[in-house]
Amino acid sequence: MTGQITLRPWSAQPQHAGIWRVGIDHPGKLNAMSRAMWVALRETLQAVNARSDVRCLVVQGEGAAFCAGGDIAEYPGFRFDEAQLTHFHESEVWGGLQALLDCPVPVVAAIRGACMGAGVEISSCCDLRVATEDAKFGAPIARLGFPMAPRELELVVREVGSMVARRMLLEAAVFSAAEMAQHGFLGPVVAAEQLDAVVQDTAEKVAALSPLAARLNKQGMRSLAQGGVPAVAQPYAYADDAEHREGIHAFLEKRKPQF
Predict the structure, then answer these.
(1) Mind listing the pLDDT tens digit for each residue in 247-259?
(2) pLDDT at 232 over 80
(3) Which GO terms describe its molecular function (predicted)?
(4) Domains observed in the chain
(5) From CA 152, how far away is CA 173, in angstroms rounded?
(6) What beta strand segments (E) does the chain contain?
(7) Angle at 40 between CA 38 and CA 41, to 5 degrees
(8) Cα separation, 53 vs 199, whole angstroms
(9) 206: exposed, middle or buried (Cβ count in 10 Å: 0-12, 13-18, 19+)
(10) Nearest 5°: CA angle at 60, between 58 and 62?
(11) pTM attached to this predicted model
C-alpha cells in the first residue's frame, strides 16, 4: 500500500458544518509520505480550495503519528537521477505543500507522535498547530546524505526559526513539543487524550468567525511571508460586504454575529 490522503467532514453534527479533516494515512509506516500521497495531497487541497462550504480545515495523521517523513523505501527508484529528483521535489512535494499554503481558510495541524521531515514541512504550511506532549519534531535527512530542497528549506526556516532549522539539519537534532512551543512553532501542547477535543474547540472558534475576514487575513499574512507588505488587491473592497455589516451591527446590538 502506498498510503492515502483522505477528506471528510469533522463530524455529522450541525455545529461542525464547515469544519473538514484531511487525514494522512500510511499504515505501518507512521504515515510517511509516498510519492502518490504527495500528488493526492495536492489534488485533495485543490478540491477543498474550490469549495465554498469549508470554513476550517484540520490536518491530522491517522493513528499514533502525524507524519514520520518521506517513504524511504521508494527513494532508490528515483533519487539518484537528477531529472527525476527535480520533478519529485519541485512538482510532487512542492505541489502538495503549495496547495496547502494556498488554502483560503484557516488550517489547523493536529500533531501527535512523530512529526519528522515531511511532517515538519506539512505542519509548517498550517496556520495553527496543536500537539500532544509526546510529539517529536526533526528533519534528520543528513543521515540519508541529502539536504532539504530549496523551497522546502525556506518554508521550514520561516516557520520553525533559523536556529531550530540549523540544529534539525546540521546536527539532526530532534525537539520535543514543549521545546517547539517555546520556540513559537506550536500553540497548545496537550495530553494525548485531549488532542481531538482541543483541536475541535479550536476549529469551532475559527469556523464561528467571519470567513471573509479569515480569507483576507490569510492573503495579507501570505504577502508578509513572501517578504513584502500585505498586498491585497482592493484591500477595502469589503466595506459594503454583508459580513462586515453583520459583525458591526451585532456588536452594537449586543448579540452574537451570524456569519
Answers:
(1) 999 999 999 998 9
(2) no
(3) lyase activity
(4) 4-207 (3.90.226.10), 211-252 (no CATH)
(5) 18
(6) 4-9, 19-25, 56-61, 107-111, 114-116, 128-132, 136-138, 175-176, 189-190
(7) 65
(8) 19
(9) buried
(10) 145
(11) 0.94
Which of the 8 DSSP states describes residue 90? I
Could you tell me the CA-to-CA distances from 183 to 84, 180, 229, 238 in Å, in that order?
A: 35, 5, 24, 35
Q: What pLDDT sits at residue 9?
A: 96
Residue 182 Cα distances to 8, 114, 116, 120, 169, angstroms = 32, 18, 18, 16, 19
3-state secondary structure of 160: helix
pLDDT above 90 for 127: yes
**122 and 109 Cβ atoms separated by less than 8 Å:** yes
Task: Give the pLDDT confidence score for residue 222 in this predicted structure.
Answer: 83
Mean pLDDT value of segment 66-88? 97
Answer whether 20's CB lies under 8 Å from 48's CB.
Answer: yes
The cell for 218 is 490569510
Residue 122 grid coordinates: 506539512
| Burial environment of residue 158 by CB neighbours within 10 A (0 to 12, 13 to 18, 19 or more) | middle
- pLDDT score at 229: 63
Report the SS3 class of residue 170.
helix
Residues 25-58: pLDDT tens digits?
999 999 999 999 999 999 999 999 999 999 999 9
